Amino acid sequence: MAHVHLVVDAVVVDETMQFSLAELCHACQAESARLIALVDEGVLQPAGQQPDEWRFSGSALRRARAALRLSRDLDLNVSGTALVLDLLDEIAALQAKLHRAGVV
After folding, report:
1. Fewest Cβ atoms closer than 10 Å to its Cβ: which of 24, 37, 84, 93?
2. Using CA atoms, how far apart are residues 93 and 98, in angstroms rounded to an integer?
3. CATH number for the segment(s) 18-100
4. Which residues contact 84 (CB under 8 A, 6 or more apart)?
5. For the chain, which residues make up each domain, given as ranges?
6. Which regions of the chain does DSSP assign to beta strands (E)?
C-alpha cells in the first residue's frame, strides 16, 4: 500500500493582524477586482477610504476566503455570496443564543 504525505502550509492569523489589499489578494490567491467587488457589496469592510489605503483585519481574511469559496463552489455572483454569508452569520448568532440559553 502506498503512503500519501500531505503537506499543509498554514499561517496563524489573529484579529489584530492587518492586511493591505495586495496582501489580502496574495493570501486569498484572488485578483484585486474580486476583493474590491466584495468590499463594494459590503462583504468586507476595510479601514481606509481608497483601495491603496485599505487595511483589513485578520477576520477579513477568513471572511474573504469563505466568500471566494462560496462563489466558486456554488457559482454565485457577488450579491448571492453576500446573501449567503449574511444568512450564515445569522445562523451562527442564533446558535450562539441557543447555546447561551442552554438549549443546545
Report:
1. 93
2. 9
3. 1.10.1660.10
4. 70, 74, 76
5. 18-100
6. 18-19, 56-57
